[in-house]
Amino acid sequence: MAMDTRMPQQARRRLHPAVYKAIVVCMIWMILATLGFLGKSQGAPSFWYEIVAGFAAMTVLLPLNLWRLWRRDHMDEAMPATTARNWLEGEFQTWQERLSAKAAIINILIPPLAAAVAMTLLVIICNIDKA
Questions:
Q1: How far apart are the first and last CA of the chain?
Q2: CA distances from 47 to 34, 74, 126 (A)
Q3: CA–CA separation, 102 and 19 (whole Å)
Q4: Phi, psi of 40, rounded to the nearest 5 degrees
Q5: Mean pLDDT of 57-73
Q6: CA dist., res. 72 & res. 59, Å (int)
Q7: Does position 70 have pLDDT exceeding 50, yes or no?
Q8: What is the pLDDT at residue 75?
Q9: Alpha helices in 2-100 (DSSP H)
Q10: b/e per residue 29-64 (b: at least 16 CB within 10 A)
Q11: How far apart are CA 30 and CA 25, in angstroms?
């Protein structure tokens, strides 16, 4: 029986920058879908839709700002440059357990992607219903 002589790969604790970009893209998509309601309503004032878009913008801006502040304080622990493909092949360490990087990405991107898709479908359904 041959022993595995490979060294255990150290799990990454930081997300690849492409993950943050994907989150921002999903949230911008949701904001644009939310703005699809503007001017389409007969009864509700349009400022309600602007408020919803503002809340959606805050879901991007607050975590982004917190990340920037954290990053500024931890610049000495710079993440080694790696491609997204190499990052996806590794493991990601959460506070609970180690996950494959692909599973971590899926768990991270499901909520903003689901929100963007749901908002888009809601706009499409409302516009079909009014036609």
A1: 70
A2: 12, 40, 18
A3: 11
A4: -100, -15
A5: 78
A6: 21
A7: yes
A8: 64
A9: 17-35, 47-73, 84-89
A10: bbbebbbbbeeeeeeeeeeebeebbeebeebbeeee
A11: 9
